[in-house]
## 1
Amino acid sequence: MTPLATLRRYLPILDWGRRYDRASLRNDLVAAVIVTIMLIPQSLAYAMLAGLPPEAGLYASIVPILLYAIFGTSRALAVGPVAVVSLLTASALGEVAAPGSGAYAAAALTLAFLSGAVLLALGLLRLGFLANFLSHPVISGFITASGLLIAAGQLKHVLGVPAGGETLIGIGLSLAGHLGDVQGATLAIGGGGIVFLLWVRRGLGPFLRRLGLGAGAADMAVKGGPVVAVIASTLAVRAFGLADQGVAVVGIVPQSLPPLTLPAFSPQLLRDLAVPALMISVIGFVESVSVAKTLAARKRQRIDPDQELIGLGAANIGAAFTGGFPVTGGFSRSVVNADAGAETPAAGAFTAVGLGIAAMSLTPLLHDLPKATLAATIIVAVLSLVDLSILRRTWRNARPDFAVVATTILLTLLMGVEIGVGAGVILSLALHLYKTSRPHVAEVGLIPGTQHFRNVLRHDVETAPGLLMLRVDESLFFVNAHMLEDLLRLRLAADRGIRDVVLMCSAVNVVDFSAEEGLEALNHMLRDAGIGLHLAEVKGPVMDRLRDTHFLHDLNGKVFQSQFDAWVELTGTAGPQRAAE
Amino acid sequence: MTPLATLRRYLPILDWGRRYDRASLRNDLVAAVIVTIMLIPQSLAYAMLAGLPPEAGLYASIVPILLYAIFGTSRALAVGPVAVVSLLTASALGEVAAPGSGAYAAAALTLAFLSGAVLLALGLLRLGFLANFLSHPVISGFITASGLLIAAGQLKHVLGVPAGGETLIGIGLSLAGHLGDVQGATLAIGGGGIVFLLWVRRGLGPFLRRLGLGAGAADMAVKGGPVVAVIASTLAVRAFGLADQGVAVVGIVPQSLPPLTLPAFSPQLLRDLAVPALMISVIGFVESVSVAKTLAARKRQRIDPDQELIGLGAANIGAAFTGGFPVTGGFSRSVVNADAGAETPAAGAFTAVGLGIAAMSLTPLLHDLPKATLAATIIVAVLSLVDLSILRRTWRNARPDFAVVATTILLTLLMGVEIGVGAGVILSLALHLYKTSRPHVAEVGLIPGTQHFRNVLRHDVETAPGLLMLRVDESLFFVNAHMLEDLLRLRLAADRGIRDVVLMCSAVNVVDFSAEEGLEALNHMLRDAGIGLHLAEVKGPVMDRLRDTHFLHDLNGKVFQSQFDAWVELTGTAGPQRAAE
């Protein structure tokens, strides 16, 4: 690769930046204004969810978005604090410091730095494929459970009680213990906020569409709901002096651009946060890439997952040095950005400028914003993540996947995110390996009038006496290396008339060293019994692998290109095809 | 299953016991006498290797062999202390107690009990297949490294120095530090023993065979070598009063049948020994089953791995309550047993009687047996386990397996058995998953004059313009769920003329929920691009799985039974086959 090409690969901005024009500028500016307005309450809310002061949410939405604009490959992805990553942040930091303390905020910087370092390292080593090990059921289960956990965790703000708890049971017990302390005014604001936001989402959107508003404009109005709730509840607090009646408000937020901060680097802290950082990186990456791919597919653009790792890594390191906390590409903010017409990452840069202005000048207006309203916006937002339909869909015809979803949801709710996701990943790998360790092997016969072979139990096929044709439906490797030997020992004991065995290898993609030994043993067993062992439809890569092995050398039979060739030769019938030649 | 059949399954003795006759009795008795003589020095040696008093080796060879005779399925397997398991025992016990202490011997009982419990549980749950996860390269690498470690660890007895060390480097450094303390007489006995035993093995055996002795008899003479060495060196010690000159001898061994003992069950000890017990169970089981299978194959008998787990479990629990330590089916003792003509497990029972007599009456004769001789027998025995040829064989055409062997050997030697085997298992799984996450996908075409489709890059095949036929060489599941989408996006961008894509699914054995979503996304992508997506050669189980899914419902194309059917319909050419009908 030329130095310039390398530079372009690592700096996608060089690509779109060259072609930037006035029309793109106008569209990006419009999108940025809309996104900025939406992001102000969202940033404050997710900072609260992460257990951090409100300004951290604003800071985490400024520099990271700028760095992603330089290094990221998605044109519309908006990077900043998101619900699930904020939950993971709170759960990780709760282990090392008390929420609200200086150590807690410093540890948030360290966590962002570590996540950024992990993401960068994975990107530079081009290990983006590792995210594939999080299966769809694990991700779905985890997101659903996180949505429920987050919503449950925010109820304390809606009720105005000092409850705690990390797991669903812990939160429930803690809330139950504080039921006597519920504050009426807070509940009115929080409960009212939830009802209003749900109505906006479920009632207003369809209503506006019926009025003839375009779907995009109607959605935009729905997305504006939280802004309306924030303004209305802030004005209510101020008008009725509710802060004096015990309604918790955001309070004093410093007027400042993001400060320059240094993460704490004590060895103990780095050790404690290493696993959570890895988790946040991988989950944040998976979430971000799936959003980016969805948006890119709409416009036929391309996402490079390895470069995305670099973009998100830079964003998190940026967050670490500017008073933020771990960030990733968020679904709702990105969709708003795309719907509002953003054409290039410059829209993100303009959003950053907008948020910078807000951080410097608008924060006094936020003083009387009730925390209950922020909690209401979080609850309504995360409940849309909860999707239990996957349980029904996997139960029908993908039971192993059902087991994985159910395990992930239950363990995440009851024992926390790390155990839930870890168990989900291990269970999905274990179930897959269990399946491959006991593969399906079909006895096949010829479908009359064709050269095609199918399972004798499912199709009406021709077979020949003394000829056993087996289709092995799995790669042969250590977990099933001796399966064929065991299976044929039983089969031969039951049927003494077998003279030839043909293994149809169309589904054998790999033969490892253990399986090679297994095949050798099988060959010896069949040879001792006076039975021929033949292979058919062995693929190129497998044939390359077996060439020059003892097994192929001593093979007590032949290797046929196709199953039909084996049939023709071993049954002595000329195939219809050959007859015609 | 009838109660009687259940009883027969769990008590194989009911099966062979019914048909036991005079001829079998004579053969079993002869075999038992030979094996008893061989087992006396071997039992003492492996007890020493495990860090236990010599009588523990005798005890561990008595009751376990009886219990295995009742519950085990192999006709010739001899159960007792073996080298590798004794090494694992020493390494586990060294973590919890000082060798030679009472706590050490009690912990050995606990370890045997835990291993027995694990084996029994695995057997009752029919989880014997779990042993398949130890691939051939991991087992080979581990056995080779263990052989080297054991031999190195025994050098201290040959040199007569009080060295220690657990890893190759540790042992080497410790020996180097004691080079000044080497005892001449001990070295003469130990070194002489090694030279003699190597000569017996490499020189005497071939010599006797050249003299016309049968291979069996010659091998038997070779196996008798250690007995000769034991007798000769014991007489030498007595004759020259070498014990007074500092030659370490076995010393006083109590004259007793195996005592009734109770393992220690403190929670801390159980926790500390849980992982080593699991390891010993699985490794001991794998070793034992492979020996049993080899012997059974010679006589066309059958081994039931799940029942073997029960037999070995019972044997270990027996060891725990009769002053023993962890045992398993050993290679050399089993081969001698089989070669000496053992026909049924009764031979094992007679061996137990023989060893019982030895434990009661012959132990005073062992007083002057030098430990250096025992060490020499161990060293020569385990060096035959060392097989570095697997490194060469895997290097040639199975590089991932090479990586696994090399890692297992190196880490076992340098960091101990648990880390070595653990890393080997994890690496073999990871390499397999890595491979399946980036599967081989071949573009195929029709081999002229047949109905067989092959890789266009390897074979001279027909293709058709606008028709892309891809053979997917892997099951579709979460680790590669989006691979086809990514691959086709690139392929379609490069070739704008494609109108139809046929996925030849002969190697797709599984489609999980994640892959179903991936296929749906692929279908949408192709539909939006006006390209048809077709499937061919979908197997029965996969078709069952996909029936009633959104993907198949919305499929923008057809499902063909064979690739040839797809070719005929999509190219509009009548196949030669159809033309003939």
## 2
Amino acid sequence: MTPEPIHDIAHLAHVELLTDKPAESLDFFVNILGLTESGREGDSIYLRAWDDYEFHTLKLTAASRTGVGHIAYRATSEQALARRVAAIEKLGAGIGWVGGDLGHGRAYRFHDPDRHVFEIYFDTRKYTPPPGERPALKNQAQRNHGRGCAVRRLDHVNLLARDVAAIREFLPAALGSRVTEQIVLDSGAVAGCWLTVNNKTYDIAYTRDFTNSEGRFHHVTYAVDQREHVLEAADIFLENGVFIETGPHKHAVQQTFFLYVYEPAGNRVEVANAGARLILDPDWQPVTWTETERKKGQAWGLKTIESFHTHGTPPVASDH
Amino acid sequence: MTPEPIHDIAHLAHVELLTDKPAESLDFFVNILGLTESGREGDSIYLRAWDDYEFHTLKLTAASRTGVGHIAYRATSEQALARRVAAIEKLGAGIGWVGGDLGHGRAYRFHDPDRHVFEIYFDTRKYTPPPGERPALKNQAQRNHGRGCAVRRLDHVNLLARDVAAIREFLPAALGSRVTEQIVLDSGAVAGCWLTVNNKTYDIAYTRDFTNSEGRFHHVTYAVDQREHVLEAADIFLENGVFIETGPHKHAVQQTFFLYVYEPAGNRVEVANAGARLILDPDWQPVTWTETERKKGQAWGLKTIESFHTHGTPPVASDH
Amino acid sequence: MTPEPIHDIAHLAHVELLTDKPAESLDFFVNILGLTESGREGDSIYLRAWDDYEFHTLKLTAASRTGVGHIAYRATSEQALARRVAAIEKLGAGIGWVGGDLGHGRAYRFHDPDRHVFEIYFDTRKYTPPPGERPALKNQAQRNHGRGCAVRRLDHVNLLARDVAAIREFLPAALGSRVTEQIVLDSGAVAGCWLTVNNKTYDIAYTRDFTNSEGRFHHVTYAVDQREHVLEAADIFLENGVFIETGPHKHAVQQTFFLYVYEPAGNRVEVANAGARLILDPDWQPVTWTETERKKGQAWGLKTIESFHTHGTPPVASDH
Amino acid sequence: MTPEPIHDIAHLAHVELLTDKPAESLDFFVNILGLTESGREGDSIYLRAWDDYEFHTLKLTAASRTGVGHIAYRATSEQALARRVAAIEKLGAGIGWVGGDLGHGRAYRFHDPDRHVFEIYFDTRKYTPPPGERPALKNQAQRNHGRGCAVRRLDHVNLLARDVAAIREFLPAALGSRVTEQIVLDSGAVAGCWLTVNNKTYDIAYTRDFTNSEGRFHHVTYAVDQREHVLEAADIFLENGVFIETGPHKHAVQQTFFLYVYEPAGNRVEVANAGARLILDPDWQPVTWTETERKKGQAWGLKTIESFHTHGTPPVASDH
């Protein structure tokens, strides 16, 4: 019999983003993207979308550089967390336990093969809305305040890596992630890989870093309920002078309806909608796109914009 | 430590619906709802939505009565299936193994406390599109043919039961389902209960059968990608003379954007969109709606239509 | 040869609404509906939607009662205005010239047969956005600020009248309006009438006032670009505790996708979308709905809510 | 006093399109775009969208070349038609009366300065739906059959011209059209001009033909009710192998949400949505875009695709 799927990790929990323009970045995330601040500590501000159930999904940290601080996943139970820690230690990728912060209890940190820092935890702090933020419908974390793009929840993160094939081996072993789609070039190199720990079609994606830098960040994505909300987000970005890199359009890979912008410090942010698409099949076979297929561009023919392959944070010399 | 969540069942797989007007029902499901026929055997026609990955999600069977034949869930592995069979047998609810049909291999059948027939299986037949149905994007089961409402995938089923509280105990024990929302009346009676085995907010719902009949069916739901598609479905139903019972509107419970119609034999069918809402929290606590809260009607104030509480299939004397 | 269509009046220009809760009404129109204040004078505040080209489309006036102050149309030219004044004086409906206000120059006032006050003018003050309100695209009056429902432009007004048949004669004679749709009861009484001066399917509607009061107001409507925006408005109203009377749903008459709420003083306000529907035919024949046809409810079967027939402003004893 | 606006022409009525692949073109227009055939005569097939009120809005004519046969406008009355004929004859642009065809009575033909053939008429044949095409709502020309893109109505036509400035003088004089937007290059040359005879923001556009050919065609556009329908059209084109040139995206000029494809014979076809945007102002001043402004690309930053400036029908040597 084939080995059983692993369900130890529940979901992508939060992303720590570094900014060297903290005031401008905060204004973007709160007033334009529409996140809500739930707390501050040290150089960090904790932010969340109106239907994120935890204390935060974005930890915005003032720093001397941009890019990602760490990526966090929440385990399905303490027992599951212990199993993952054991697996990661066996892989030799562990960093060790940290005490947690405003948003959650103790967490276990590790590196992916590209030196991005991850953490996993179970003990969390769920968001309790203050009076003015209580939703009209009790099955929602916070009222939909309608501010800016008013994104609903964290969706996924996209990282750059020198060796995506190594990631493709590592994450399933470390977290129990499944590869749902990938791009394999004619040379056999893996140019992109999309993985998930649950029924979302992906919660993390890696694309190849052609600069050979390590630990870089491509984008973080928040989900909206409808494709029309992505179009409205485009109008909001336009009216607020936010740089729109590409979109709205529909990806061929994963079929996500996307829109990419840069927040003031240069980190790429996506607003996206996946429609009703989910991976329900427990033995889903990865969809592999060839180099020829990817040359067709996005779903409706839009050519992939050059900066999508070159711009990451922190920027490096060869970035555009 | 609290017990760990169970992940033995992957998803709701298909529903067998009985019709005493097979030709009219088939025309509805194919040309108006937009399903595609994948096979026929005996009195049954196998149907699926364009992004359903299995051979079928609806088995439409000509019969002398309406209502539901059986409800099927797919397990996450053979091992998980064996665990569920053991659990169900321990509950004394088992019927036994059946050999499968055109759509899947052997399956284990059981009764819920209201005598609805369920089956669980792992061995399935995945849909392979014939040349004319091949999708432009290879990460999709079949081309989106755009016929009728062109629903994307099976979403959930809703059954009637005399004792919903009994169901609320049974399904988590049998399938590892989680209760995500429920309605508890002032009397303590459970008027409705929504459960899921995965990250969908629910794949099955039970509402109280006030006629005290057993084994009755409330509705089956197919998902579309956008709320606008539900509105378009309303226009399609209108133009085709399909009886619209209620909607489009947004449910308070689960926030689903809904539209209910009756197919020609009287079985209720829903076209729905859930937006980006998912249950990602591994220790999600059930949301309990009180009688007073439910008297407010649906999310935007629409009063729940009387027939929603009374019409089920097969009809009984006290039905309207 | 048949007489030529009249094009002397360009469009519905603004509505003066009376409120006995001016602070609460202002908060509703600015922060929830999403209008912008362009000026104040005396007891009135001038408001407009972000793509209204004139200084204002809503004049909100503090008063001891609710309902409508006056309704204004803009003429296509000074010559056209003079022709209309002559026609109205011939009808014996004239009140006389007034000097205008913050929003426009001199205007000619008259009564409709139900004693609502109208005015027509040509000389107007076009909106010039201050720096913070300049749009990114210069073909738009003001930036789309995204505040509240962020409605785009004034759409139409609906008044109550004891004798709708009299209105149906009067408005075409006074303004050159065309009747596009109407409801004629089995008794021959006209229960509703929709008229337009341009290619919009209607800019004014009258429905019968069963209380036999005069000069009452039914609702004012602002248009949004998409049906999805009406659904979003419903969520915004829900979260802000605004009373939703009925909708979102699609009218059978005129096919407008509608949502009705009461602003804090009790005046009914609609957020609506007409899709791409226009009256382009220069010899369009009025569509007449019978009593039987109207008993089918709205387009998708929603029964017309009772208060829609009874609630007007100012309220009268027999109102609900 | 300034001269009064002219209202002699009601609307763009139909476009005759030439195809050298008549069977393939017909399949595209009927089964993919979703028009309905209302008649045939000679080499022509008459087609219309489901809410077009006339017998046809597209006359598809088999020919040895592609491009446009003629463009027709309907007058507001017989008297108005006579006035326009007199004006056109005075301009020296007249061709003379023709007897009409299946779709309308006698029409007056003339040339624009780029030698495109136009006709104007008042006497028309309104569409009467056969039993199977009767709409559920009587205020609609035909049932919304939901076939293909199921476009609602003809929207506008775009022609190429060597001298757009000459057109900008001619059409207002000939038809009473108003210039609503234009692109004026730094050289003073007019690169594009958008005109309307009614409240639509434009019913015809001209863009500069850099090949110096005459009488060429750029595209014809059908309107859908919602932006989401444009996105769905993109999926339909994708699944049917139709070449998508560019879009969906939002134009900066006129803000139209657009999608361009080539029908099998190479004529460009647009599916578009204008939201609630109308030109209601009777003294609207043309919006003039500079060369610098237009270099910013479309509303959300999409660069205008090269072929948009070069591909016209019939193709000429310098076309791409």
